[in-house]
Amino acid sequence: MALILGCLLLLGLCGKTISAGPPSSTQTPEGLHFDLPAVNYETSGSPSTGSITGLFRMVHTFLHVVQPHNFPEDTVRKIIQKKFDLMEDYKEVVFYEIGLIICAVLGLLFVILMPLVGCCFCMCRCCNHCGGEMHQRQKKNGPYLKRYFAISLLVICILISIGIIYGFVANHHLRTKIRRTRKLADSNFKDLRTFLNETPAQINYILSQYNTTKERAILDLNNVKPLLGDGIRDQLRPKVIPVLDDIKAMATAIRETKEALEKVNNTLEELESGFEHLNTSLSNIRTELENSLNDSTCSEQMVTATCNDIRKSLGQLDININLDQLPPVHDQLNSVNNILRTNLTDLVEQGYKSFNDIPEMVQNQTKNIISDVKSVLDSIGSKISDVTNQFPIQDKLSDFKGYINDTEKSVNQGLLTLEEYESYRWLGCLAVCCLLTLIVIFYYLGLLCGTCGYDKNATPTSRGCVSNTGGIFLMAGVGVSFLVCWILMIIVALTFFIGGNVQKLVCEPYENRKLFQILDTPYLLNEKWEYYVSGWMFQKPYINLTFEKVYSDCKENKGIYTSLQLENLFNVSAHLNIQEYTQDITNEFEHLNINLDNIVLLDDAGKQSLEDFSTLGVEKIDYTAYLMEIGKNLTKVNLVSFADNLLVTASRLPPGALKTSLDGHAQSIKRIHQREVIPLERSMSTLNQSLKVLQRISNGLTEKLNKIILSLDSAQKFISNNASSLIVEESKTYVNTIIGYLEHYIQWVKDSITHKIAACKPVATALDSAVDVFLCSYIVDPLNLFWFGIGKATLFLLPAIIFAVKLAKYYRRMDSEDVYDDVEFVSMNNMENVNNSYHKDHLYGIHNPVMTSTMEH
């Protein structure tokens, strides 16, 4: 009882304190996952009965059959309100207790009647009635009756033995559990002290986690360059980098254009010089061939036709290409050289550098603000510490330690007294069980001796000593039964009425929480308070705070702040308003002004170079005319083929000066092809490649350049005019990240205070230990099992007495026997037994008139 009062006192005291629980944020920033240190408690709070549980359930079932009515809530409410009048409301009590009352009345009748019956039975036997006469009449069904009485008594003894075993088990279980009560109490008090000691440690842990949060925020503040600067740069990258890449590619195209123009110009000059020299060589060879054909040999009839054919082909020895009609590229080359005086590549690299320096610019422009924000974080930590110090929980818990010590002292003293008297109780219950055991042993010994010593050939007056001892044991059992059964029934009735009522009125209502529901009845404990708990704790009886809710929340290990609705005393949400703490940081970041006006992607000189390149006129070159002209054969006829044909023709001429001259000219033509034509063809191939490069570069050049210039202007304009909105967006993301750390921490603090700090499971466990475990499981259940077993054994003593008395007649040695008038019903075996008995009587000089009459008959 002291432990129960201590638990209720704890609830009351904690009602004037503040406590809390764990984070519930849905999005946890990386590296900021907070968990309160786990608190381990020893006491489970649930009873453990082991293999004996089935016996307890059997007794519960029996009680439910005897007492099937629902818990009398209305009657209990009347008793609590002191409105119960026994004279008027006794019917309700009788109706509820009718089962227990009937059983108690039956037990009372048993207590009253059994001594009277025993006394009458004793006196009756003294008058040779009720089986007191040592005479047994022989019956035809005697063996069957003896067997029936023996078996019935054996079954009854077994049932009595089971009841006795229940009694022994219950007695031992009760003693064992009472010895464990001190350990249970110590475990509960240890858990309560752990609860008191860990709560301040949890609060200190919460405060210490602010340093972790602040360090994470400061880390991000120190990394403003990669976090904010890189973010801004990455947002600008899609607008800027493609433009700079295009300009860089165009600078490469300008250099390629210059190289191609130089090659075209140089190749044209080489070709002009080569064509002039080739033209001279071909003119000379034509003149020499004409002079050779003026030889007198050509006047001969056989040779004239051949000479004329050669003379006609001399016109093919000429150049087939005319480069003079192609436009020169001197102007384009001079223009591109002027453009290249401005190093566009270096200007582009400067644009890249200017863009990549954005994070550095952001860092330099935010130094002062970052310093101010760090100061604000320090001040927020001090505010949170001040708010936490306003909780009176540590002082209250320190005061409560004294109450715990006093309660523990009272409990220990009570347990000492309990253990002292427990020995007497155990001895008393053991004596009860031993008395029943003695009785049933008498019956077992009577059955054993009577059965083993019974001789079916012996007459009732000649039964053996063992059989007679069995009968004596049975009658001894009957005698002891009459002496002690009424005392046993008194014990059974008392324990039954007490244990049954405690089980039905305390244990079961506590388990199904009917007791809490009754206590939570509006205006029950105080006529002016709708809810007693809130009225007692907050002087606000209209707040829906009930015993059942407090117990259920503590059972679920919720914090006292939630369980007792302590927001009515101290509103954590109001004192830990997130906006109040984050507004200072937001105000500091409002002065954030990042300026990117100094970023220049390409200066005017570079832009002018692009514009000049767009007007270069490379795309206006008649590439088709160039390619068509240089695509022609260099000479009108292939010189090698011409020389070969000339050699073939000369071979048909008669030997002489003409043939020799033609052979020499053919070789000269081949030398011209080898020395002059082939180099010129190579130069023409180089010219062709250079022209194709120029054609590729110039393809859509103006459109590309205009697009690049427009993109450049757009990107530069975006940086100058529109980047501010982008900077604001990135800055908001960065600021929200910093504030998010603080919001997450404050939300976790609120959730911890309202849910987990000072989780009151040890209080509910202590209450369960006092009522459910100690009272119901340790005491009431074994007590109920004890009266159930002993009561069962005691009740079965009645039929055992009857069967034992009847069976004893068949085991004990009688003083006389029946005389059988109808010999037709007497067997030859019985006649032989009678004859044997007659001779024995004469042998020992005993005169038995009945036997003599029988024999004479």
TrEMBL record:
Coiled coil regions, renumbered to chain: 247-281
Presence of keyword Membrane: yes
One family name in Pfam for this protein: Prominin
GO CC terms: apical plasma membrane; cell surface; cilium; microvillus membrane; prominosome
Top-level taxon of the source organism: Eukaryota
GO biological process: camera-type eye photoreceptor cell differentiation; photoreceptor cell maintenance
Signal sequence region: 1-19
Keywords: Coiled coil, Glycoprotein, Membrane, Signal, Transmembrane, Transmembrane helix
Keyword Cytoplasm annotated: no
Listed GO MF terms: cholesterol binding
TM ranges: 94-127, 148-169, 424-450, 471-498, 785-805
Membrane topology classification: Multi-pass membrane protein
Record localization: Cell projection, Microvillus membrane
Protein family membership: Belongs to the prominin family.
PANTHER family (UniProt xref): PROMININ PROM PROTEIN, PROMININ-1
Record-given protein name: Prominin-1
Protein's organism: Trichechus manatus latirostris
Taxon lineage: Eukaryota, Metazoa, Chordata, Craniata, Vertebrata
Gene that produces this protein: PROM1
